[in-house]
Amino acid sequence: MNVQMVCLADQYISQVNAMFPGSVHDAYILRNSSIPYVMGQLQRHCVWLLGDSGYPNLSWLRTPVRNPRTRAEERYNEANGRTRRVIEHTFGLLKARFRCLHMTGGSLFYSLRKVCQIIIACCMLHNLALRCQVPFLQEDGPDDGVVAAVEPVDSDEEEAEEEDIDNRDSVTQQYFQ
């Protein structure tokens, strides 16, 4: 299952899409989600999402510079990576809290629709646990504490519109020079 999530800095999950099998490309899931519409509405408020290299660079979606040539681009990539660790850590917490989502907890032998519902329910319970400050109790075991990393999928930067790349370059020069 390829799960696309958006989370805030406090690991609160604000959007989850769990409708596509693992073979579906991240950019396809993004295009077929509500995120482009929502971000289009928020863009005038200077709200950006950060994504890995599996996503196209868009005016509201900041992705790493593929081949950084300047120190500013390198610093931008470093800051992007540090900030994106929040989502990677959130995925790890979700899998640790709900072992049925982690491969060591077994597989979910249900229909695709039921698996989607289970993932969404786990995300909602995760948010509720954060809101209610439920302590995270970790069992002792070899896989506990392992934070799952979201593997980047190569995408051609040429897919991104030139204006969006110029926009990212402008941000890079302004804040990371």
From TrEMBL:
| MF (Gene Ontology) | hydrolase activity; metal ion binding; nuclease activity
Residue stretches making up the DDE Tnp4 domain: 1-127
**Which InterPro entries does its entry note?**
HARBI1-like, HARBI1_dom
> Which Pfam families does this one have?
DDE_Tnp_4
Cofactor(s) listed: a divalent metal cation
Output compositional bias ranges, type Acidic residues: 153-166
Alphabetical keyword list: Hydrolase, Metal-binding, Nuclease, Nucleus
Question: What protein name is recorded for this chain?
Answer: DDE Tnp4 domain-containing protein
Specify the taxonomic lineage: Eukaryota, Metazoa, Chordata, Craniata, Vertebrata
